[in-house]
């Protein structure tokens, strides 16, 4: 099991200081592994405590995502895929198990360090876009760079490049985000996820609120980014969406299943034969 | 997060709900506005009074004496001058009589003749020369037949209905006026108070002549009732009134209980202190009332900020997901709160001053300021920079105090829960 340490023995090229917190990345792991896994999860458990009792949302998940892979995690509602996404995105911490992001052990970081990590190494695309309403497209895309204290001129430049790479015409850059269509909004959200040059883009049902044509456009954008070498993890319940990824993993009841296990489970749940036309 | 970006985020957020934010700070605006209005009016009154009574004229002592059994004559005054020489640099006598003054066919039936001495303008601050000069000590010694007339008298005796106050002032120097059959030459013209213009009819004039001339020609053997003393620099202004009163009591043989009925002495300083004291008390009451209103306003702001946070839960979750740390969120919301209160304060200061300006014209025309301000036309509300800075500072403090809790609430939201919020 690889152990991540915060201050590496040798100088690291990709270390960032955000808000005074040194987030040193790609560090600590043996040199030959550093280039391989962006995400390395071993035996991850997540248990929620509530008034209703304990919920064991993730039961021993292990997953490795190499750099440049377009991974899809598919599962029905309640399977724990959102929980997994939140942990991958450093918005939530596992109850047990290890999560190495570019070799850095996330469990050793405190709240501020996790926030810094999100600002510099992660990109999010949500199902409901989550753009700031009364703000321009450009300003929306710049937002992660605002939180990394990037200079305004540089921010504009990076944001424009990101918007160009998702194919949004320049005339929309000064529009308010609530004046553009759903498909355009999601493309803006993807551009926003790109600006800090993240290690991995995490997309949670990105086409869920879009019609099939716009959804197709968004998936094509993801495909293009993947071909440019970006690492993408996308969760969905839609099988058609999963066909765009390099690899699909199935999740049910907090566990990752192999293809045969998945087929067996599906057969078991539809064996009652009802609802067939 | 950079300071400029922080400012920008806060301002954009506030701008999104302009009307609602304006209503939220209404309490603060009203509280500050009312404080500023009252402070400006009081400041204006103080300015007028300082102009009127300021400088060396707080050393002026006004002495009124009237006792039928013990009338005062010039010899008594001379003795007072000698025996209280250490307390007074000089004492000016003023005697008044109302009689007819005429120029040709024009007459002032009720002209007020004041016989006084050369230093009169220095101890009677309402005597302000507009043309020519006041009579000199030489003229008083020689009982010359010269007069100084006020602008109303000039209009009534030398002008007509169409003449405005001040038009003929320069032309009347050297001309003569007939009083009691004798001719008097005008050597100077003094200003008249604006409120007198409205009140005085066409039979009125204020005329000053040398005391000696007055006593010989206008009203011989008239007892002396008013004196104006200029206290010396070593004199103790707090006791001079009492000392003078006791001197009069001993000199005329009047008992201590009765002397209060016969004379009234006050220094300008006492009058100023009295008014200052009253204003300080009034200010203290005002500040207390304003504090209550600001407290209430602040609670309203806190309530609105809490609502604001609830409305923006998803936005806060998003910001945290994108890398906003605890400090970024608290700073943004605190700054919004401070901007709210500060803008409320600024609007309050501006509107308070404008109301004071509007009110001053009402106050002037109804004469409500008459007793405290001798020249109401000069009255202008005044507020100094220090007070404005204090008000601004208080607003900032209120913004921080009442914005702290909502800001903390926002910053402590769990991003996952917040993003899920409907």
Question: How are the secondary structure elements laid out?
Answer:
The complex is a heterodimer of chains A (277) and B (422).
Chain A: E1 15-18, E2 21-24, H1 31-34, E3 37-50, E4 53-66, E5 70-74, H2 81-88, E6 96-101, E7 104-105, H3 111-121, E8 122-125, H4 137-146, H5 152-165, H6 182-194, E9 200-204, H7 212-227, E10 232-236, H8 239-242, E11 247-252, E12 255-257, H9 259-270
Parallel strand pairs in A: 5-10, 5-11, 8-9, 9-10
Antiparallel strand pairs in A: 1-2, 3-4, 3-6, 6-7, 11-12
Helix pairs in contact in A: 4-5, 4-6, 5-6, 6-7
Chain B: H1 3-15, H2 18-24, H3 26-53, E1 60-65, H4 74-83, E2 88-103, E3 106-116, H5 120-123, E4 129-132, H6 137-141, E5 146-150, H7 151-158, E6 176-179, E7 182-190, H8 194-199, E8 206-210, H9 211-218, E9 226-231, H10 240-252, H11 256-262, E10 263-267, H12 268-311, H13 313-322, H14 326-366, H15 385-411, H16 415-420
Parallel strand pairs in B: 3-8, 5-7
Antiparallel strand pairs in B: 1-9, 1-10, 2-3, 2-6, 2-9, 4-7, 5-8, 6-7
What structural keywords apply?
heterodimer; A: 277 residues; alpha/beta; Rossmann fold; six-stranded mixed β-sheet; four-stranded antiparallel β-sheet; 9 helices; 33% helix; 26% strand; disordered N terminus; B: 422 residues; alpha+beta; six-stranded mixed β-barrel; 16 helices; 10 strands; 17% strand; elongated
Low-pLDDT sequence parts of chain B: none
Quickly give the structural class of chain A.
alpha/beta
- Largest sheet of chain B, described in full? 6 strands, mixed, barrel
Strand content of chain B: 15-25%
Overall geometric form of chain A: globular
Span between termini of chain A: 51 Å
Please tally the helical runs of chain B, counting DSSP H or I stretches of 4 or more residues. 16
Stretches with pLDDT under 50, minimum 5 residues of chain A: 1-34
How helix-rich are the residues of chain A, as a percent range? 25-40%
Largest sheet: spatial strand order of chain A: 8-9-10-5-11-12
How helical, in percent, are the residues of chain B? 55-70%
Question: What string gives the helices and strands of chain A in order?
Answer: EEHEEEHEEHEHHHEHEHEEH
The overall number of domains of chain A is: 1
The greatest interface here is:
A-B, 27 and 24 residues
Q: Characterize the overall form of chain B.
A: elongated
> Can you write the helix and strand succession of chain B as a string?
HHHEHEEHEHEHEEHEHEHHEHHHHH
Oligomer description? heterodimer
CATH level 3 topology of chain A: Rossmann fold
Instruction: Return Rg of chain B in Å.
Output: 33 Å
Biggest beta sheet attributes of chain A: 6 strands, mixed
């Amino acid at each position: 099991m690889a152990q991540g340490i915060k201050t590496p023995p040798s100088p690291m090229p990709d270390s960032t200081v955000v808000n005074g917190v040194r987030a040193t990345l790609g560090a600590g792991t043996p040199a030959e592994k550093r280039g391989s896994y962006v995400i390395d999860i071993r035996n991850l458990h997540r248990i929620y405590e509530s008034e209703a009792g304990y919920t064991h949302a993730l039961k021993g998940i292990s997953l490795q995502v190499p750099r440049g892979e377009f991974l899809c995690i598919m599962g029905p509602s309640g399977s724990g895929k959102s929980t997994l996404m939140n942990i991958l995105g450093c918005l939530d911490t596992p109850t047990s198990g290890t999560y190495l992001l570019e070799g850095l052990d996330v469990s050793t970081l405190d709240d501020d360090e996790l926030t810094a990590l999100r600002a510099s190494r992660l990109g999010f695309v949500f199902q409901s876009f989550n753009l700031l309403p009364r703000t321009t497209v450009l300003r929306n895309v710049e937002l992660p760079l605002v939180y990394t204290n990037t200079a305004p001129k540089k921010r504009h430049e990076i944001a424009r490049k990101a918007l160009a790479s998702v194919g949004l015409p320049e005339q929309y850059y000064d529009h308010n985000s609530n004046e553009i269509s759903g498909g355009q909004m999601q493309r803006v959200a993807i551009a926003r996820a790109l600006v800090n040059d993240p290690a991995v883009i995490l997309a949670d049902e990105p086409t869920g609120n879009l019609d099939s044509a716009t959804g197709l456009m968004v998936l094509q954008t993801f495909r293009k980014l993947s071909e440019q070498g970006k690492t993408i993890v996308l969760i969905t319940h839609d099988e058609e969406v999963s066909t765009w990824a390099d690899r699909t993993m199935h999740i049910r009841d907090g566990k990752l299943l192999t293809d045969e296990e998945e087929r067996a489970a599906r057969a078991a749940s539809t064996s009652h034969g009802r609802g067939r036309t | 997060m950079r300071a400029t970006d922080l400012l920008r985020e806060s301002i954009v957020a506030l701008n999104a709900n302009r009307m609602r934010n304006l209503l939220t700070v209404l309490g603060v605006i009203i509280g500050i506005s009312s404080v500023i209005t009252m402070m400006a009016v009081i400041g204006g009154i103080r300015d007028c009074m300082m102009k009127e009574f300021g400088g060396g004229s707080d050393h002026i002592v006004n002495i009124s004496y009237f006792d039928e059994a013990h009338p005062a004559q010039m010899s008594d005054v001379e003795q007072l001058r000698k025996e209280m020489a250490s307390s007074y640099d000089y004492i000016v006598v003023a005697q008044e009589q109302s009689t007819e003054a005429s120029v040709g066919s024009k007459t002032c039936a009720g002209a007020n003749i004041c016989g006084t001495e050369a230093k009169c303008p220095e101890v009677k601050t309402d005597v302000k020369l507009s043309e020519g000069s006041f009579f000199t000590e030489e003229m008083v010694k020689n009982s010359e037949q010269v007069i100084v007339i006020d602008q109303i008298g000039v209009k009534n005796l030398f002008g007509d209905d169409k003449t405005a106050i001040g038009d003929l002032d320069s032309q009347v120097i050297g001309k003569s006026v007939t009083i009691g059959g004798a001719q008097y030459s005008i050597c100077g013209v003094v200003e008249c108070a604006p409120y007198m213009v409205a009140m005085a009819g066409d039979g009125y004039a204020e005329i000053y002549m040398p005391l000696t001339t007055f006593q010989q020609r206008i009203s011989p053997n008239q007892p002396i009732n008013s004196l104006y003393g200029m206290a010396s620099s070593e004199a103790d202004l707090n006791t001079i009134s009492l000392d003078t009163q006791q001197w009069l009591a001993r000199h005329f043989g009047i008992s201590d209980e009765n002397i209060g009925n016969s004379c009234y002495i006050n220094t300008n300083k006492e009058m100023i202190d009295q008014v200052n004291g009253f204003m300080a008390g009034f200010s203290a009451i005002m500040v207390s009332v304003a504090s209550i209103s600001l407290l209430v306003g602040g609670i309203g702001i806190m309530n609105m900020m809490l609502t604001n946070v609830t409305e923006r839960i998803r936005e806060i979750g998003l910001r945290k997901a994108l890398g906003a740390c605890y400090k970024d969120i608290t700073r943004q919301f605190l700054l919004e709160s401070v901007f709210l209160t500060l803008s409320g304060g600024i609007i309050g200061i501006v509107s308070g001053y404008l109301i004071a300006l509007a009110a001053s014209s009402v106050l002037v025309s109804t004469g409500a300021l008459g007793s405290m301000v001798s020249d109401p036309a000069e009255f202008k509300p005044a507020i100094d920079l220090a007070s404005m800075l204090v008000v601004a500072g208080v607003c900032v403090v209120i913004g921080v105090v009442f914005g702290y809790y909502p800001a903390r609430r926002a910053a402590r939201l769990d991003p996952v829960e917040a993003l899920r919020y409907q």
